[in-house]
């Protein structure tokens, strides 16, 4: 990759997040299947629907800047999801597993919030007004999901695990 200016860096980061969102679409159904709590399962299922929309939104951002959607491997999300998969294999107690998966899912959300925050601010500087709105919509859903997962943890999942 050769990146020499902010426009190219924006595009590169867009491809990185596009890769990440597609990996998350693959991971969430597995996490939902493993969840013991109905609330945790429902949270993963509903975020799967949103995440599919995030992929579509990114495609519209590519289109808005006149580029074809393409993905570049994002080592950060590979690492975070690898850790989540390892936990799913290692933790045997269902309630502890729910707490572990909530924590793993929140690591994913924080990664996404960071990336979308950066993309929103770069899109603004670069004058991609439509992209700003689209990326903000996703960022807000990531934040709402993170809050929802925090509440689930506090509302009992973590205590049950303890
Ligand atoms: Fe997302
Ligand atoms: Fe997310």
Automatic annotation (TrEMBL):
TM regions (residue ranges): none
Name used for this protein in its record: Ferritin-like domain-containing protein
InterPro entries on file: DUF892_YciF-like, Ferritin-like, Ferritin-like_SF, YciF
CDD domains: YciF
Source organism per UniProt: Jiella avicenniae
Ranges annotated as biased composition (Basic and acidic residues): 137-150
Chain positions covered by the region annotation Disordered: 137-162
